[in-house]
Write a structure and sequence with these properties.
Blueprint (H helix, E strand, L loop, with lengths): L18 H10 L3 E4 L4 E3 L7 E7 L1 E7 L5 E8 L3 E2 L10 E4 L3 E7 H5 L4 H25 L4 H15 L5 E3 L4 H8 L3 H13 L3 E5 L2 E4 L7
Antiparallel strand pairs: 1-8, 2-7, 3-6, 3-8, 4-5, 4-7, 9-11, 10-11
Amino acid sequence: MKSKRQKTRQPSRRPSSTSAAYVSAIDQISAPIPYARNEVIFSQGEPADYLYKIESGCVRAFYPLDKGSRQVLAFYLAGDIFGLGAHDRHTISSEATTPSLIRVIRRKVLMGYGGDVAMSRHLLQLTAAELRRARDHNLRLLKGAQDRVIGFLREMVQRGQTQDEIELLMSRRDIADYLGLTIETVSRTFSRLEAAAAISLPSPWRIVLRDPSALN
């Protein structure tokens, strides 16, 4: 499936070379595009000509494996910018995990907004942050199943709006493929944490932290 593309207009003014300014630049020269649940944002092998900023929803980035399996590499949430990479073509694929609004902006247009040097520096900072998150995730995969799940919950808390509740915008299969576990193992671990009064599960898409210290 081909990626959706957004027509852009040239900006009338240039921002200062700050992260907030470039996030604002993306907002000014693009409009949110709706994506349905499981809809492809971009596929492995497509030209990497665009950057993406999530207004609402969630995106999974994954590496396709044999026989329809996959390794989920990252989840992107509201406010995140993704599609970064040093290659001319995407080495991974991405799909919306839930109905999402995503801004799509051509890299060349954004590079001309505020100066190539300043924008390149900003994109380098975003890429460095992405690499740190990938490193932390790879270290998590060396741990046992319960520690992986707890690490995932801790990550969602750190990236969320509240410290006592997590809205899951991804399925159990997404989480399992992210943590290198089976769906059954993820579900059993959630149940074990609930039995230990660390969390409660009001619904499959919501986790309440009854004892946040249990995630430390």
